[in-house]
Amino acid sequence: MKITKKSAKNGTMQRVIFNGAMALFAIGMLTMTGCSDSDSSDSSNTLTSTSAGTTSSTTTAAYKQSGGSESQSNQTYTASNTDESAVYVTNSGQFTLTNSTIITTGNTSSQDNSSFYGLNAAVLAESGSAITLSNSTISTTGTGANGAFATGSGSSVALSNVTITATGDGGHGVMATQGGSVTLTEVNIATTGASSAPIATDRGSGTITMTGGSMKASGQNSPCIYSTGVITVSNSACATDGSETAVIEGGNSISLTNTTLSSSKDGKWGVMIYQSMSGDAEGTQGTFEITGGSLAYTGSNGPLFYVTNSTGIITLNSVSVTAASGTLLNASAGNWGASGSNGGTAIFTANGQALSGNFVADNLSAMTISLKNGSSLTGAINADNAAKTASLTLDSSSTWNVTADSYLTCLNNSGSINSNGHTVLYNSSACSTLGGKTYALNGGGSLKPIN
Fold this sequence. Notes:
- By secondary structure, the chain is mainly β.
- The protein folds into two domains: about 1-220; about 245-450, no CATH class.
- Helices cover about 0% and strands about 50% of the residues.
- It contains one helix and 46 strands.
- The strands form five sheets. The chain has a 23-stranded mixed sheet that branches. A 13-stranded mixed sheet has the order 4-5-8-11-13-15-18-21-24-27-30-33-36, covered by helices on one side. A four-stranded parallel sheet has the order 35-38-40-43, with no helix packed on it.
């Protein structure tokens, strides 16, 4: 472990040992014997913590603070040992750092503890602590080396004008767990390892708010955004080529405004909403909403949205949408949940949208689609008649341009349907408003009962 450019504001930085019961030692200017010119660890810089759950872990750090309020600038904090953080604040401490460099190279001894509690994170706030970092850089190269991490109720990390790079597997950019929160303003994050989302929450939920900045992920199974909590992003950009752009697990949410998202991995999808049953996220109803900006999946196969073993509430508001595969949404059973009951339920609403592509589902899955406020869909719905249910509502300002015969459980139409010679069939026993009748549609096709 190495610290360069040591300084302390007001001479009150704390050097502490927690070992079982809390004990506080050497309150004053931090002096780390044997650490300033070598990478040898100092056992007095070790805290034993049970902050975020029942699992106890030992955290060492280059800079460590327990309680109190400290401010520093123009620092370089370097950590190289296994499970070692560069900056670690606990016990309701408050730490402000500006114009500084944070570097870690050590690996984690437990990927689970890294993802759940922040073990080996470069910057770690726990036990109701708050870290504010600005005009700085964070770089990690080890496995499970998350850039910045807030864990536990009341714990927070606020970053502004910060650049984060993480290259190891399981090295996320920022994470919040167990009720922690992270706020990002003009933060640019790049990850290259597998399972290394730039922004993510994990077990116990968390809140992340991002304004401006950018996200880039190139590792396998590394979406830009992974939510087991509440994630809000505005005026940002996301690109990934090894995964989806965004994932919601369980009853959690992602809300985006004026943000661009793109993914290109063949055989994946643009956005996935699911329940893994791993215990990382509670609930089965995920919510994804995007207003303005763009959402593009350029892979040759795979849908723009995939909903499985859960309910996905999807709302698009005046978004530029690209689904190169030709499939906008697929609700179906997959690799999670109990076979026979692990389908997806998609509730899809388009406001002011121009959509091109198809909606598909399997026999365990359902789709409810609403086109509103001048929306248009060019595509087919349930063309193979496989879905458990598939319903469509068009308001008076919206249009469906049918590209293949489609099968609906029910249709509520106040708008326009251009059939292009195709037939739209409905289930008369489930759609009494249509009265079991056959209707002529614009373009030479018809709307008629399945039986």
